[in-house]
From TrEMBL:
This is PLP-dependent aminotransferase family protein. Residues 14-82 form the HTH gntR-type domain. It holds the Pfam family GntR. Its cofactor is pyridoxal 5'-phosphate. In the C-terminal section; belongs to the class-I pyridoxal-phosphate-dependent aminotransferase family.
Length: 464
């Protein structure tokens, strides 16, 4: 396979398949990829870029549709001769598409919290549904700016059954990633709004709020989640929380704290933004209903995503607005276009409608429960009482408090020397005084059980 140096940005609002498509289009137009060049197979390119085959297939389909490449039976995909009405400017600036050293540096055992298990993704089923949808030309056109109604209907039924969320399809807004939807929500807020965020909390959410001119007030956590007393004494009129699996601490907010939060919102006339992060995967105790499902005053705005439970590259997330915000949403967002391709929405809708989504989710719960069990057992066996595990009730990551007097930076560098990537938590704190001791963030979704065991053994060598 010839050198592919495309830099994919997983946090961009541009879907990964479009980034791949744009890379090849630019390379073909500039002549850097010449006529009759054979492109790598979907499988090889997907493995090389660490994305799903569907992502590569979607990029190739777009290139074929525009005439840049052609499929030759039993031979593969080849670059076609393209006649340009406008010759590309040879003096135009050339963009660096090589990966930075920091990004391209790969460790053998990478405990990244954003990675998921792709080995159990139902490729054949997804591919079949994709082909069926591609055969209907309507799926290639622009769709509903709010998201396809039939997908919103499937989501509303799924959320009612699994999370107790009560909403109509009309309350659901689909978008490319949670941060994008936070941006939409900011447009509905008064500019003098103050949003209480969990400290520590997800830094990209904070960035999205501040980018849109919204003031934030970091509220520390206690053992049950956001400190309700500190919240009551703050100036915030909106609270952004992750009650199902607080990021990064892993705290699961108990029902008593959820009810306190709802009382706060009702008393102040404020809103709660419930980000149901990692809500699908729970390993201990009974499921706790969502805040939205037990809210009688329509003060909860609910966020969810398919990134962790399905495939991150699809970037299909959703927001559920209270009825009283719908008119404002339609007036404010009337000229906006949908950011998730209609084709992806239709594929997911059929996937859910035919029962494949529920089956896949049940399978992944079993897979991740087994990986979680393997990780905890390996930590206890190899590291013992020299570490403390935090936040292991649900989700796809845990925190590790290491008792060896090393700083966070020293812990991470020591692990790197033994080919292990673990991650800091200090970056998620807004107020450094809330960050007392170094904690390491270990995700396990993207590793096999064998890799988890070997990775913890290497971590033991690095830290002790």
């Amino acid at each position: 396979m010839f050198e592919i140096t495309v830099h994919l940005n997983a946090t961009s609002n541009t879907p990964l398949y479009l980034q791949i498509y744009q890379y090849f289009k630019q390379e073909i137009q500039s002549g850097r990829i010449e006529e009759e060049t054979k492109l790598p197979s979907k499988r090889k390119l997907a493995r090389h870029l660490e994305v799903s085959q569907l992502t590569v297939e979607s990029a190739y389909d777009q290139l074929k549709a525009e005439g840049y490449i052609q499929s030759q039976p039993r031979k593969g995909l080849f670059v076609q001769k393209v006649e340009y009405d406008v010759i590309p400017d040879q003096n135009a600036p050339q963009f660096d598409t090589t990966e930075s050293p920091q990004i391209s540096q790969k460790m053998k055992y990478d405990f990244h919290h954003g990675k998921i298990d792709l080995d159990h993704f139902p490729h054949k089923t997804w591919r079949k549904i994709s082909i069926d949808c591609l055969n209907d030309k309507e799926h290639l056109l622009n769709g509903d700016p709010q998201g396809e109604f039939h997908l919103r209907k499937e989501i509303s039924m799924y959320l009612f059954q699994s999370r107790g969320v009560q909403c109509s399809p009309n309350q659901i807004v689909i978008g490319a990633g949670t941060q994008y939807l936070v941006g939409i929500l900011c447009m509905l807020m008064n500019k003098d709004s103050i949003v209480a965020i969990e400290d520590p909390g997800f830094h990209r959410t904070k960035h999205a709020l501040e980018t849109h001119g919204i003031s934030i007030d970091p509220i520390p956590l206690d053992e049950e989640g956001i400190d309700i007393e500190r919240l009551k004494h703050s100036s915030a009129n909106i609270a952004y929380v992750t009650p199902s699996h607080q990021f990064p601490t892993g705290i699961v907010m108990p029902i008593s704290r959820r009810l306190e939060l709802l009382k706060w919102a009702e008393k102040t006339g404020g809103y709660i933004i419930e980000d149901d992060y990692d809500g699908e995967f729970r390993y201990k105790g009974k499921p706790i209903p969502s805040l939205q499902g037990i809210d009688a005053s329509e003060n909860v705005i609910y966020f969810g995503t398919f990134s962790k439970s399905l495939i991150p590259s699809a970037r299909i997330s959703y927001m559920i607005l209270p009825e009283k915000l719908l008119n404002q949403y339609h007036q404010t967002m009337s000229i906006n276009k949908q950011t998730v391709p209609r084709l992806y929405q239709d594929i997911l809708c059929q996937f859910m409608k035919d029962g494949y989504w529920e089956r896949h989710l049940n399978k992944m719960r079993t897979v991740y429960r087994s990986k979680h069990k393997t990780l905890i057992a390996a930590i206890h066996q190899e590291l013992g009482k020299r570490v403390t595990v935090i936040g292991d009730q649900s989700g796809l990551h845990i925190l590790l408090e290491v008792h060896n007097n090393m700083s966070e930076e020293e812990l991470i560098k020591a692990a790197e020397k033994h080919n292990v990537n673990v991650y800091p938590t200090s970056i998620y704190y807004e107020k450094k005084e809330n960050h007392s001791s170094p904690l390491l963030l270990l995700g396990f979704g993207g590793l096999s059980e064998t890799e988890i065991k070997k990775g913890i053994i290497q971590l033991k060598k690095a830290l002790f």
